[in-house]
Amino acid sequence: MKKVKKAIFPVGGMGTRFLPATKAMPKEMLPVIDKPLIQYAVEEALDAGIEELIFITGRGKTAIEDHFDYSVELESMLAARGNARFIDEINKLILPVGRVYYVRQQKPLGLGHAVWCARNLIGDEPFAVILADDLIFGQNCLKELISACDNGNVVAVMRVDPEQVDKYGILDIDACSSNIVKAKGVVEKPKVGTAPSNVAVIGRYVLYPEVFRHLENVNTGINGEIQLTDAINSMTPTTSLHGVFFSGTRFDCGTKEGMVQSTIYGALNRKELADSTLSYMESVMKTETK
Fold first, then answer.
1. Residue 40 pLDDT level (bands cut at 50, 70, 90)
2. Judging by DSSP bridges, how do beta strands 127-130 and 6-10 pair with one another?
3. Alpha-carbon span 195 to 235, nearest angstrom
4. Rounded Cα distance, 112 and 54, in Å
5. Distance, first Cα to last Cα, the chain
6. Is 20 exposed, middle or buried (0-12, 13-18, 19+ CB in 10 A)?
7. Of 187, 176, 169, nearest to 245 (Cα)?
8. SS3 of 156, please?
């Protein structure tokens, strides 16, 4: 198998669940403590060995480009105020020219369409897809997928409540061994009671480039969008599909609950914040139970 060197970050969504915060700021720039969601995703990719980053953007997303670029004014101010130590921190994710690409998704036609927009930058090699909304603390999820990838498509999976299957792509399980399942197919957001399992796909994929040919031919699915899972499903007769039960702790930061929970979890796992956060939570619980 060829090395997985490229990752696609679909960041063209409108983020309407977080209005008015996302009126002028991309939802991927919403912070969990002191880093935006997209930075957590990029750090995961780089740690997994990804060399080239492809952002599929939309209107009003220039803040993402600015975040991964130099800011001469900010650096000058930090240096003048004796805060030069922050300069290395804000510049550590700036990659050399030619390793970061931005592609405009002109119409919001779904995740499958967003991935398809990157087809000319991928070439004939496997690639990763990372959804920043799925924030995973702990073990590097993408690294686990790449390790499991062997001439077939691989997706990150977790078990969900059977009443929640209509929110996910759900695997049709063929066999299960340890933390890896082999799938006969995947169904996008099946109705409750009709799902082939409760093993749900979350926002990490390692895919083969043949998926682009299938994306060109797949019909629009749920919500009139081009679904990535439909294209992956159409590949299963010729390309194997496996799901990996990842080791980290995942938060759905596409929801307000997930953002709040991820911030609390992150704070409790930061040495400089853990004690004060726990103390405050305990004081709130005492007050609320009186």
1. very high
2. parallel
3. 20
4. 15
5. 61
6. exposed
7. 176
8. strand
pLDDT, position 108? 80
pLDDT of residue 119: 94
Taken in order 254, 186, 56, 98, the sign of the CA dihedral is: positive
| Contact (CB, 8 A) for 17 and 256 | yes
Three-state SS for 132? Answer: coil
> ∠ at Cα 100 (99, 101), nearest 5°?
125
Decide: 123 and 179 in contact? Cβ < 8 Å.
Answer: no
Residue with tokens 């790449």: 146
Q: Which residue has the tokens 């399980």?
A: 173
Q: How far apart are CA 123 and CA 249, in angstroms?
A: 33
Q: Give the domains, in start order, of the chain with CATH numbers.
A: 6-254 (3.90.550.10)
pLDDT digits (tens, 9 = 90+) for 116-153: 999 999 989 999 999 999 999 999 999 999 988 777 89
Q: Are 126 and 208 in contact (CB under 8 A)?
A: yes
Q: Which long-range contacts (CB under 8 A, 24 or more apart) does 24-32 make?
A: 24/60, 25/63, 26/60, 26/61, 26/63, 26/64, 27/133, 27/254, 28/61, 28/64, 28/132, 29/63, 29/64, 29/67, 30/253, 30/259, 32/135, 32/253, 32/259, 32/262, 32/263, 32/266
